[in-house]
Amino acid sequence: MTNLAAKRDARTTWDFYNQPLREADSAIFQAIEAERARQAAYLELIASENMTSRAVMDAQGTILTNKYAEGLPGKRYYSGCDHIDTIEQIAIDRATALFGCNFANVQPNSGSQSNQAVYLALIKPGAKILSMALDHGGHLTHGSPVNVSGKWFDVTQYGIRDDNGEIDYDEVERMALETQPDMVVCGASAYARIIDWARFRQIADKVGAWLLADIAHYAGLVAGGAIPSPFPHVHIATTTTHKTLRGPRGGLILWNDEELSKKINSAVFPGMQGGPLEHVIAAKAVAFGQALEPAFKDYAQAVVDNARALAGALAERGYTIVSGGTDTHVFLVDLQKQGLVGLPAQRALYRAHLNCNRNAIPNDPQKPWYTSGLRFGSPAGTTRGLGVAEFTQVGHWIADVLDGLVKSGGKSGDTEVEGATAARVAQLLQRFPVYERA
Question: DSSP state, 269?
Fold first, then answer.
């Protein structure tokens, strides 16, 4: 190789390792920058979304993405995992401290895979599951017929009461005694009230069933002490690590009984996954460390206070809140009284820079794509620094936009109201900036 060729080859190698994204792939860089601008300009009210810290993102975007580490700390199938073991063990130790349990597996790539791993560990295809129906607040992975959990298991689902929108524990017990499930699943993705973990354990024990709590939505509130913990009542808890926990997108499994450890760990690997995403696990460790700080308790309580303020403002304007209010970070609005459908309502609010998601309500007459409800949450807005006064004002802005949609016949919306609201949102968010460049 000539000296010129060697220099050219060295330069190419240097570029591969060190060229910044802006130069290496301008199309992706520009799309990311556009998304950065969108997140800054829109108020995020989707209950399952949050804004994580710079430190979490710094940990996730590291050279740890280069390393395969199949197995567990101290028991790897690849060499060179010394520092990886340190990082993953820190994540495990922080997770157990945060949730007050004995064991944790930090490797699941998502909450869905966490649930699938628990099913794989403890029950067999065809087993009976009793869980909350999707259109009453449950989750796809709790046995929805379109999900693998609904295809592989014999699922019976409970819902909420018509009169108060809350879980009827006596009815859940009756269904459990009738169906004799192998596993009872509690936890939800669109249920606003406190879940009685102890009562669910009583029900599960009566029929000799495993009790799984999916706290993907509530984990941050549990960690911050804003709502009761599922431990020591449940056999296993699963969660995501984003949402109210404010970490990277990922999953987590928690338990107390050492006899379950081999089953759960083996279900995650090799049962469900191959090499864990150690860069994400590092980011999880950072998030768990941040959630162990005293300030996180204040954040968790503020999330609840802000959700109540938002729901209260909408109720004051005549909008029906499913279950009458919220004890958590999330609530549903039933739009039927106003004659509105979820999809155009969601779009109208988005045009006003208020981002929420349409959601089915109990006994929803609309198809899942359209829905009769909207789901709102306070985690991301609370992370930005908004308080009760701001969330109360936002509730009235939401009502203004929806009222304009009613006047337009439920489809096109009031462009003047939407534009004015977008301007008000922009003015508000200037006081609560995010991800400013150094």
Answer: I
Q: Among this protein's residues, is 249 annotated catalytic?
A: yes
Whether 70 is catalytic: yes
Percent over 70 (pLDDT), the chain: 97
44, 135, 182, 214: the catalytic one is 214
Of these residues, 240, 241, 382, 383, which one is catalytic? 240
Residues 6+ apart with CB under 8 A from 224: 291, 296, 297, 299, 300, 301, 303
Q: Evaluate the omega torsion of the peptide bond into residue 125 and state whether it is cis, within 30 degrees of 0.
A: no
List 94, 128, 201, 243, catalytic entry: 243
Identify the residue whose tokens are 């929803």.
364
pLDDT single digits (tens) 22-77? 999 999 999 999 999 999 999 999 999 999 999 999 999 999 999 999 999 999 99
Active site residue 257: no
By CB neighbour count within 10 A (0-12 exposed, 13-18 middle, 19+ buried), where does 30 fall?
A: exposed
Active site residue 17: no
Decide if 156 is catalytic. no
DSSP H or E run through 44? strand 43-44
DSSP state of 153: S
Mean pLDDT (whole number) for 243-269: 98
